[in-house]
């Protein structure tokens, strides 16, 4: 990456900083965006709430079944004999197994499905993937979720116990606290926001891409011949006029055209005209912009085919692709 | 209209002919769009997890279309400046990649392969760590015995109050015998077994997860647990009940202690990979070790289920010490045979 260009160009956005290029086994380069810490925290909070709700509801259901449907008298609970006591035992076993599964199998079950995301992660728009671009194995999912035990449930248990027994934790308690702080600090301390489980499993959490295919932008007569059908004006731009802008400005123009809001079109038309020294005409700004967009893109794409790229209006023509680098260090 | 079509999951059909595009890169896009759309439809269906609704034809087409889109993407990156199309291709290639390289075969298929050789192979591959864990466990038990033998006060420190119950120094032989052969509440067995399993499994998972800190907490946990066992061994030896105690313990102990051994070894394996990654990068070494150890851990949970059933039911039903030892030894031989002699999976994968 060319630092001299970047210093005067636009600032790097947060999403760009979180982008990582991974080479898959077939040699395809894919740009992943590492999930932000906030979205991961949000996802885990949603999941914990869901687990808590599931535990609560299943407990209530079992109690309801036990005392409601089966009519087990309450005084039989203390070491009773006969069918009622056996029913109680059966329900207790069911409850213990269910709690164990909620605690340990919830994350496993959802992350092993094709979406690779728990409900919380789905809502946050993130999912898990293998860090090296290869297969995400079941073992990796298991490893990252067993480690969750010391990251999530152990602290919870620890603090619950501390608050229940009072504050006589002493040195052992202090050591445990330090340990927990270290574990919780891991995702904050590394670049890819890996938690301990991700390190052990070789996984990471990335944003789930979801982009629809937009329509082809420039198809009208303005794009083809540069003539406006409304005013009949002819737009043809020369090398000097098109050479003012680079790829970044082209993409801004693309967004403006896709949004298609009259006041933006007018404002951008005026800016461009001022820059290239044209008199801004009135009446058909869209045709002007479409023509400019098409001709600018044709010029830049032609440059690309010859290995010349221009990142933005500040850039000199660079012979190596200038948009490489920045956030893409992998 | 557009919104309505989107609502029903239909993408509006492109009405553009290739000739209508003014730019070369747009023509490139229009020529390939049909393939992209088809892949998107397959991917969307598969993401929903309803594999039965995806035809075999589509599943076979998935890797081919994935490569097509991947190559479209790399061509587009070098020739097109249409940001929207690039973003779409990036997104589609990633979504297809997630599926092509996602978890295979689902939970059940994985489980079958796991029992059919992957588990025993994983256990064999951490042999060194098992040896270390075994040494640590034996040392822990010896230390526990020696500590209590030197000063019975240690007993209270090693064994929690609730677990000790009547088994404390000074208890007479008859009371202790009662704990070994008494059938305290036969109808509580299933409940007892489930509670045991839940507790033991959580401790085993903890032993594994703590391996992350260079294995040291795993080792401490092993020593602590085994020191308690050593103290109990001493207690029953004092009462002249050592053989009976060992017989009582062996019913489930051979399985349970084996499982704890494996869990500790899995933790040590991960910790060792992080502390001494060797040639590989730390993160890669940790990941490789973590995956191997995870397989062992699933096995550990299974073994603890077996141990809980043995402990909850059979120990109360079988009172003869010889039969108890026989059952315990059988379980031990069974596990050893399974881990060492069962090598079917290897020939298939070599």
Q: What Rg of chain A is obtained from the alpha carbons, in whole angstroms? A: 30 Å
Biggest sheet record of chain A = 2 strands, antiparallel
Global geometry of chain B: elongated
Kindly name the structural category of chain B. Answer: mainly alpha
How many helices of chain A does DSSP assign? 14
Helicity level of chain B: over 70%
How many helical elements of chain B?
15
Count of separate structural domains of chain B:
2
Order of helices and strands of chain A: HHEEHHHEHHHHEHHHHH
Q: Tell me about the biggest sheet of chain B?
A: none
Classify the helix fraction of chain A into a percent range.
55-70%
> How many strands in all of chain B?
0
Strand order of the largest sheet of chain A: 1-2
Multimeric status of the protein: heterodimer
Q: β content of chain A, as a range?
A: 5-15%
Mean pLDDT of chain B: 80
Poorly predicted regions of chain A: 1-7, 320-330
Summarize it:
The complex is a heterodimer of chains A (330) and B (350). Chain A is mainly α. Helices cover 58% and strands 6% of the residues of chain A.
Question: Which helices and strands, and how do they pair?
Answer:
The complex is a heterodimer of chains A (330) and B (350).
Chain A: H1 3-8, H2 14-17, E1 19-23, E2 29-33, H3 37-69, H4 82-111, H5 119-124, E3 126-130, H6 138-146, H7 148-165, H8 170-189, H9 196-201, E4 203-207, H10 221-225, H11 239-242, H12 247-259, H13 262-276, H14 285-305
Antiparallel strand pairs in A: 1-2, 3-4
Helix pairs in contact in A: 3-4, 4-6, 12-14, 13-14
Chain B: H1 2-7, H2 24-47, H3 56-79, H4 83-100, H5 106-125, H6 127-150, H7 154-158, H8 161-164, H9 173-181, H10 189-209, H11 216-238, H12 242-275, H13 282-317, H14 321-341, H15 344-349
């Amino acid at each position: 990456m060319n630092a001299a260009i970047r210093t005067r160009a636009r600032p790097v956005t947060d999403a760009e900083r979180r982008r990582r290029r991974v080479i898959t086994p077939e040699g395809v380069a894919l740009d992943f965006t590492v999930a932000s810490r906030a979205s991961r925290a949000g996802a885990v909070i949603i999941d914990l709430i869901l687990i808590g709700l599931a535990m609560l509801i299943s407990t209530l259901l079992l109690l309801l079944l036990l005392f409601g449907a089966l009519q087990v008298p309450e005084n039989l609970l203390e070491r009773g004999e006969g069918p009622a006591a056996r029913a109680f035992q059966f329900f207790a076993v069911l409850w213990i197994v269910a709690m164990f599964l909620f605690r340990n199998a919830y994350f496993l079950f959802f992350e092993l499905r094709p979406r690779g995301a728990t409900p919380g992660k789905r809502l946050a728009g993130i999912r898990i993937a293998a860090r090296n671009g290869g297969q995400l194995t079941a073992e990796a999912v298991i490893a990252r979720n067993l480690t969750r035990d010391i990251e999530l449930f152990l602290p919870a248990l620890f603090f619950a116990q501390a608050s229940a027994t009072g504050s006589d934790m002493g040195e052992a308690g202090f050591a445990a606290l330090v340990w927990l702080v270290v574990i919780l600090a891991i995702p904050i301390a590394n670049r890819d926001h890996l938690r301990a489980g991700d390190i052990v499993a070789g996984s990471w959490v990335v944003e789930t891409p979801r982009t629809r295919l937009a329509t082809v932008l420039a198809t009208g007569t303005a794009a083809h011949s540069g003539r406006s059908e409304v005013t009949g004006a002819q737009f043809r731009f020369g090398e000097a006029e098109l050479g003012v802008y680079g790829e970044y400005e082209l993409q801004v123009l693309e967004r403006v055209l896709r949004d298609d809001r009259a006041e933006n079109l007018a404002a951008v038309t005026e800016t461009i005209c001022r820059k290239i020294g044209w008199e801004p005409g009135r009446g058909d700004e869209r045709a002007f912009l479409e023509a400019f967009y098409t001709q600018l893109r044709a010029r830049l794409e032609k440059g690309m085919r010859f290995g010349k790229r221009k990142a933005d209006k500040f850039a000199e023509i660079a012979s190596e692709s200038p948009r490489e680098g920045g956030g893409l260090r992998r | 209209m557009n919104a309505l079509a989107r609502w029903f999951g239909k993408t509006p059909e492109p009405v553009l002919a290739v000739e209508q595009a003014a730019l070369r890169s747009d023509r490139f896009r229009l020529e390939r769009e049909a393939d992209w759309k088809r892949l998107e439809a397959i991917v969307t269906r598969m993401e929903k997890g309803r594999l039965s609704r995806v035809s075999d034809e589509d599943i076979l087409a998935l890797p081919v279309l994935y490569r097509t889109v991947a190559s479209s993407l790399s061509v587009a990156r070098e020739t097109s400046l249409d940001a929207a199309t690039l973003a779409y291709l990036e997104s589609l290639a990633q979504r297809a990649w997630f599926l092509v390289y996602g978890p295979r075969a689902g939970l059940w298929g994985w489980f079958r392969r796991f029992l059919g050789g992957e588990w025993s192979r994983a256990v064999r591959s951490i042999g060194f760590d098992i040896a270390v864990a075994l040494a640590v466990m034996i040392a822990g038990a010896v230390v526990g015995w020696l500590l209590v033998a030197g000063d019975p006060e240690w007993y209270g420190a090693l064994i929690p109050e609730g677990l000790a119950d009547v088994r404390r120094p000074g208890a007479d032989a008859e009371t202790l015998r009662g704990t070994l052969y008494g059938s305290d509440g036969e109808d509580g067995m299933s409940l007892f077994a489930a509670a045991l399993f839940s507790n033991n499994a959580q401790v085993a998972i903890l032993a594994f997860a703590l391996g992350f800190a260079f294995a040291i907490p795993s080792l401490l946990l092993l020593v602590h647990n085994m020191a308690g066992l050593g103290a109990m061994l001493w207690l029953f030896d004092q009462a002249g009940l050592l053989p009976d105690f060992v017989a009582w313990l062996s019913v489930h102990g051979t399985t349970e202690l084996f499982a704890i051994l494996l869990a500790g070894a899995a933790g040590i394996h991960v910790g060792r990979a992080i502390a001494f990654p060797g040639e590989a990068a730390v993160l890669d070494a940790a990941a490789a070790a973590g995956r191997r150890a995870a397989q062992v851990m699933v096995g550990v949970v299974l073994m603890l289920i077996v141990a809980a059933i043995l402990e909850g039911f059979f120990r109360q039903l079988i009172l003869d010490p010889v039969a108890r030892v026989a059952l315990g030894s059988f379980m031990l031989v069974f596990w050893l045979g399974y881990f060492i002699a069962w090598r079917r999976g290897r020939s298939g994968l070599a």
